[in-house]
Amino acid sequence: MAGIRPSDFVIKCPPELADAHWQKKKGKVGKMVKTGVGAELKKLHAMLKKVDTLALDPASNPSKSMKELQIKVAEAKKEYMKSIPPIKKQCLTIKSVAEKAEAKLKKMPLGKDASKAAASVAKAADFYSVTCKSLDLDSSVDKVKADIAKKNMLAAKLLKSSLAKYMTGAKKFLSDPTKESWGENIKQQGRSVSNSVAQLAEYRAEFWNDFEKFKGFDLATLKIDDDDNFGKKTSALVKAAAKQVVAIAKFKP
Asked: In the prediction, which pLDDT does 1 show?
């Protein structure tokens, strides 16, 4: 597949393939003759509405890892086979119907404009049928791969300092386990460690099942209220995370 980005496929449908456009351009003479063009155009747009463009394009949403990307590529190919060949077939049907309408309207008195409109529909349908074969999955995948590589490089660069900052913040927090101290010393520091561990494949495989339990160090997600038990609950969590941080620091991928 090479050519158009998959997520742009639906919005790149030529305006000539919209029934409203056809109804406007065929004029009075065209309205007097039954051609079937409008019905086929409506069928096409009903099909386009069902296309899952997010699934069709692996680059629609960020991927953290190659494994995640591979899953999205499989989903894209599945969506392609489900949606695009039928749309291509419908485009060829529209082309055929529009070409017959062009010939029919050309014979009508004052049917020149209507015939010309039908010819435009046929041409657009032919063009869009080619577009169906031109979805650029490879470029979409390459874009995601480059993004993953960039994220990996940044995560690896920041991991060591993130671990050190967490340990420093943990020490400060444990001496003053308040909600304010959490926001100042734990939340962002812990989240930075989470981001790096989640991004780097070797660290993710080794530690993420346990580190994910800290829920990005978000108190609401952790369901920890600012009450009399706040200090006890958060201190236990911070200590547990610190043990993980020490293990992460010692890990040699």
From this structure: 41
Mind listing the pLDDT tens digit for each residue in 191-218?
A: 999 999 999 999 999 999 999 999 999 9
- Say if CB 51 and CB 45 are below 8 A apart: no
> In terms of C-beta distances under 8 Å and separation of at least 24 residues, what long-range contacts does 153-157 make, across chains too?
155/195, 155/196, 155/199, 155/200, 156/196, 156/200
Could you tell me if 29 and 108 are in contact, meaning their C-beta atoms sit under 8 angstroms apart?
Answer: yes
pLDDT surpassing 80 at residue 104 = yes
Distance CA 250, CA 244 (A): 10
In this prediction, residues 178-186 reach a mean pLDDT of 97
| pLDDT value of position 27 | 87
Q: Contact at 8 Å (CB) between 226 and 179?
A: yes
Rounded CA separation 41/4 (Å): 22
Q: What pLDDT is attached to residue 2? A: 47
Q: Dihedral of CA 27/32/33/37: which sign?
A: positive
- Could you give phi then psi for residue 60, rounded to 5 degrees? -65, -35
To the question of pTM greater than 0.85 for the whole model, the response is no
